[in-house]
Write a structure and sequence with these properties.
The complex is a heterodimer of chains A (110) and B (117). With 110 residues, chain A is mostly beta strands. Chain A is built from no helices and eleven strands. The mean pLDDT of chain A is 95. In chain B, 0% of the residues lie in helices and 51% in strands. Chain B is globular, with a radius of gyration of 14 Å. The chains are: A mainly beta (110), B mainly beta (117).
Protein backbone atom coordinates (compact mmCIF):
# COMPACT_ATOMS: atom_id res chain seq x y z
CA UNK A 1 0.00 0.00 0.00
CA UNK A 2 1.62 3.23 -1.14
CA UNK A 3 1.28 5.93 1.47
CA UNK A 4 2.04 9.57 1.97
CA UNK A 5 2.15 10.73 5.57
CA UNK A 6 1.67 14.27 6.84
CA UNK A 7 1.20 15.78 10.25
CA UNK A 8 -2.42 16.90 10.35
CA UNK A 9 -1.65 20.00 12.38
CA UNK A 10 -2.89 22.58 12.89
CA UNK A 11 0.39 24.35 12.39
CA UNK A 12 0.16 27.91 13.65
CA UNK A 13 2.73 30.52 12.65
CA UNK A 14 2.76 34.29 13.09
CA UNK A 15 2.45 36.55 10.07
CA UNK A 16 5.82 37.10 8.42
CA UNK A 17 7.35 33.88 9.76
CA UNK A 18 8.47 30.81 7.81
CA UNK A 19 6.02 27.93 7.73
CA UNK A 20 7.57 24.49 7.33
CA UNK A 21 5.41 21.61 6.12
CA UNK A 22 6.69 18.08 5.85
CA UNK A 23 5.69 14.73 4.41
CA UNK A 24 7.13 11.28 3.95
CA UNK A 25 6.26 8.72 1.30
CA UNK A 26 6.52 4.95 1.30
CA UNK A 27 7.09 4.11 -2.39
CA UNK A 28 10.79 4.38 -3.27
CA UNK A 29 9.80 4.30 -6.94
CA UNK A 30 8.00 7.65 -6.67
CA UNK A 31 9.39 10.15 -9.15
CA UNK A 32 7.04 13.15 -9.15
CA UNK A 33 6.06 15.07 -6.05
CA UNK A 34 3.52 17.82 -5.63
CA UNK A 35 2.20 20.27 -3.09
CA UNK A 36 -1.41 21.36 -3.32
CA UNK A 37 -3.15 24.08 -1.35
CA UNK A 38 -6.80 23.65 -0.47
CA UNK A 39 -8.90 26.41 1.03
CA UNK A 40 -11.94 25.40 3.04
CA UNK A 41 -14.79 24.45 0.73
CA UNK A 42 -12.61 24.66 -2.39
CA UNK A 43 -10.77 22.14 -4.54
CA UNK A 44 -7.00 21.52 -4.34
CA UNK A 45 -4.76 23.90 -6.27
CA UNK A 46 -1.30 22.85 -7.47
CA UNK A 47 1.36 25.18 -6.07
CA UNK A 48 4.65 23.29 -6.45
CA UNK A 49 6.09 20.26 -8.20
CA UNK A 50 9.53 18.72 -7.66
CA UNK A 51 11.26 15.81 -9.34
CA UNK A 52 14.90 15.73 -8.25
CA UNK A 53 16.76 15.96 -4.96
CA UNK A 54 17.36 19.42 -3.63
CA UNK A 55 15.44 22.65 -3.48
CA UNK A 56 13.08 24.27 -5.93
CA UNK A 57 12.01 27.85 -5.35
CA UNK A 58 8.98 29.70 -6.70
CA UNK A 59 8.31 33.08 -5.16
CA UNK A 60 7.73 32.64 -1.43
CA UNK A 61 7.52 28.85 -1.78
CA UNK A 62 10.42 26.41 -1.65
CA UNK A 63 9.95 22.68 -2.13
CA UNK A 64 12.64 20.32 -0.89
CA UNK A 65 13.09 16.68 -1.86
CA UNK A 66 15.32 14.03 -0.29
CA UNK A 67 14.75 10.70 -2.03
CA UNK A 68 17.17 8.82 0.22
CA UNK A 69 15.08 9.78 3.24
CA UNK A 70 11.80 9.64 1.27
CA UNK A 71 11.03 13.10 2.53
CA UNK A 72 9.41 16.13 0.91
CA UNK A 73 8.93 19.52 2.47
CA UNK A 74 7.43 22.89 1.66
CA UNK A 75 8.67 26.15 3.10
CA UNK A 76 6.53 29.26 2.93
CA UNK A 77 8.49 32.44 3.60
CA UNK A 78 6.90 35.65 4.86
CA UNK A 79 3.68 33.78 5.68
CA UNK A 80 0.48 35.74 5.17
CA UNK A 81 -2.99 35.17 6.62
CA UNK A 82 -4.09 34.32 3.06
CA UNK A 83 -1.76 31.30 3.23
CA UNK A 84 -4.04 29.76 5.87
CA UNK A 85 -5.27 26.57 4.22
CA UNK A 86 -4.73 22.83 4.17
CA UNK A 87 -1.60 21.76 2.31
CA UNK A 88 -1.64 18.38 0.62
CA UNK A 89 1.49 16.47 -0.32
CA UNK A 90 1.24 13.99 -3.20
CA UNK A 91 3.55 11.45 -4.82
CA UNK A 92 3.41 9.73 -8.19
CA UNK A 93 5.19 6.66 -9.51
CA UNK A 94 5.03 5.55 -13.12
CA UNK A 95 1.50 4.70 -14.22
CA UNK A 96 0.11 4.38 -10.72
CA UNK A 97 -2.39 6.89 -9.30
CA UNK A 98 -1.34 10.09 -7.60
CA UNK A 99 -1.34 9.35 -3.87
CA UNK A 100 -2.18 12.13 -1.42
CA UNK A 101 -1.43 12.64 2.21
CA UNK A 102 -4.31 13.73 4.43
CA UNK A 103 -2.99 17.25 4.56
CA UNK A 104 -1.60 19.68 7.10
CA UNK A 105 -3.78 22.56 8.22
CA UNK A 106 -1.81 25.81 8.37
CA UNK A 107 -3.01 28.82 10.29
CA UNK A 108 -1.16 32.13 9.88
CA UNK A 109 -1.91 34.47 12.76
CA UNK A 110 -1.99 38.20 12.01
CA UNK B 1 -7.81 28.36 -21.31
CA UNK B 2 -10.82 26.78 -19.64
CA UNK B 3 -10.16 24.73 -16.53
CA UNK B 4 -11.59 21.40 -15.50
CA UNK B 5 -15.38 21.62 -15.44
CA UNK B 6 -17.47 19.45 -13.18
CA UNK B 7 -21.24 19.29 -13.15
CA UNK B 8 -23.36 19.51 -11.19
CA UNK B 9 -21.77 21.45 -8.30
CA UNK B 10 -24.23 20.16 -5.70
CA UNK B 11 -26.49 17.15 -5.49
CA UNK B 12 -28.87 15.81 -2.89
CA UNK B 13 -29.96 12.23 -3.38
CA UNK B 14 -31.87 9.66 -1.39
CA UNK B 15 -30.43 6.35 -0.24
CA UNK B 16 -30.82 3.71 -2.91
CA UNK B 17 -30.83 6.12 -5.80
CA UNK B 18 -28.11 6.36 -8.37
CA UNK B 19 -26.16 9.40 -9.55
CA UNK B 20 -24.00 10.40 -12.51
CA UNK B 21 -21.33 13.07 -12.26
CA UNK B 22 -19.65 14.68 -15.25
CA UNK B 23 -16.16 16.04 -15.84
CA UNK B 24 -14.75 17.93 -18.81
CA UNK B 25 -10.94 18.08 -18.68
CA UNK B 26 -8.72 20.89 -19.85
CA UNK B 27 -8.48 20.86 -23.64
CA UNK B 28 -5.67 18.54 -24.70
CA UNK B 29 -5.55 16.63 -21.41
CA UNK B 30 -6.15 12.95 -22.01
CA UNK B 31 -5.81 11.64 -18.47
CA UNK B 32 -8.77 12.06 -16.11
CA UNK B 33 -8.80 10.88 -12.50
CA UNK B 34 -11.58 10.84 -9.94
CA UNK B 35 -11.17 11.24 -6.19
CA UNK B 36 -13.54 11.14 -3.25
CA UNK B 37 -12.79 13.54 -0.41
CA UNK B 38 -14.24 13.21 3.06
CA UNK B 39 -13.11 14.94 6.27
CA UNK B 40 -11.92 11.73 7.87
CA UNK B 41 -10.31 9.94 4.92
CA UNK B 42 -8.86 12.76 2.86
CA UNK B 43 -8.52 12.28 -0.89
CA UNK B 44 -9.26 8.70 -1.89
CA UNK B 45 -8.52 7.59 -5.45
CA UNK B 46 -11.48 6.16 -7.37
CA UNK B 47 -10.26 5.57 -10.92
CA UNK B 48 -8.19 7.00 -13.73
CA UNK B 49 -8.90 7.01 -17.45
CA UNK B 50 -6.55 7.55 -20.33
CA UNK B 51 -7.68 7.45 -23.96
CA UNK B 52 -11.05 5.93 -23.01
CA UNK B 53 -9.40 3.09 -21.07
CA UNK B 54 -9.51 2.64 -17.33
CA UNK B 55 -5.84 2.57 -16.38
CA UNK B 56 -6.16 2.35 -12.59
CA UNK B 57 -8.91 1.63 -10.09
CA UNK B 58 -9.02 2.33 -6.39
CA UNK B 59 -10.45 0.24 -3.57
CA UNK B 60 -14.07 1.15 -3.94
CA UNK B 61 -17.03 -1.22 -4.33
CA UNK B 62 -18.45 -2.04 -7.73
CA UNK B 63 -21.25 0.46 -7.14
CA UNK B 64 -18.74 3.06 -8.28
CA UNK B 65 -18.05 3.04 -11.99
CA UNK B 66 -16.82 5.41 -14.62
CA UNK B 67 -16.09 5.89 -18.26
CA UNK B 68 -14.32 8.24 -20.62
CA UNK B 69 -15.51 9.36 -24.03
CA UNK B 70 -13.52 9.97 -27.19
CA UNK B 71 -13.41 13.71 -26.45
CA UNK B 72 -11.79 12.90 -23.05
CA UNK B 73 -14.88 13.92 -21.09
CA UNK B 74 -15.54 11.53 -18.25
CA UNK B 75 -18.47 10.45 -16.15
CA UNK B 76 -18.68 8.55 -12.91
CA UNK B 77 -21.72 6.72 -11.66
CA UNK B 78 -22.65 5.59 -8.19
CA UNK B 79 -25.51 3.15 -7.92
CA UNK B 80 -27.54 2.24 -4.83
CA UNK B 81 -26.37 5.25 -2.89
CA UNK B 82 -25.50 4.89 0.78
CA UNK B 83 -25.26 7.59 3.46
CA UNK B 84 -21.49 7.05 3.53
CA UNK B 85 -21.21 8.11 -0.10
CA UNK B 86 -21.79 11.71 0.96
CA UNK B 87 -18.59 13.47 -0.03
CA UNK B 88 -16.91 15.91 -2.35
CA UNK B 89 -16.14 14.18 -5.65
CA UNK B 90 -13.22 15.68 -7.48
CA UNK B 91 -12.10 15.20 -11.03
CA UNK B 92 -8.55 16.02 -12.11
CA UNK B 93 -6.95 16.10 -15.53
CA UNK B 94 -3.32 15.84 -16.56
CA UNK B 95 -1.54 16.80 -19.78
CA UNK B 96 1.23 14.24 -19.64
CA UNK B 97 1.45 10.64 -18.74
CA UNK B 98 5.03 9.54 -19.20
CA UNK B 99 6.41 6.03 -18.95
CA UNK B 100 9.22 7.57 -16.90
CA UNK B 101 6.68 8.64 -14.29
CA UNK B 102 7.31 12.35 -14.61
CA UNK B 103 4.10 14.30 -14.62
CA UNK B 104 3.37 17.99 -14.68
CA UNK B 105 0.67 17.65 -12.08
CA UNK B 106 -3.06 17.24 -11.99
CA UNK B 107 -5.49 20.15 -12.25
CA UNK B 108 -8.66 19.72 -10.24
CA UNK B 109 -12.16 20.83 -11.03
CA UNK B 110 -14.35 22.57 -8.45
CA UNK B 111 -15.91 19.28 -7.47
CA UNK B 112 -19.41 17.94 -6.99
CA UNK B 113 -20.66 17.89 -3.43
CA UNK B 114 -22.97 14.92 -3.04
CA UNK B 115 -25.24 14.61 -0.04
CA UNK B 116 -27.12 11.36 0.47
CA UNK B 117 -30.12 11.56 2.81
Amino acid sequence: QKEVEQNSGPLSVPEGAIASLNCTYSDRGSQSFFWYRQYSGKSPELIMSIYSNGDKEDGRFTAQLNKASQYVSLLIRDSQPSDSATYLCAALSGNTPLVFGKGTRLSVIA
Amino acid sequence: KAGVTQTPRYLIKTRGQQVTLSCSPISGHRSVSWYQQTPGQGLQFLFEYFSETQRNKGNFPGRFSGRQFSNSRSEMNVSTLELGDSALYLCASSPVWSETGLNYGYTFGSGTRLTVV
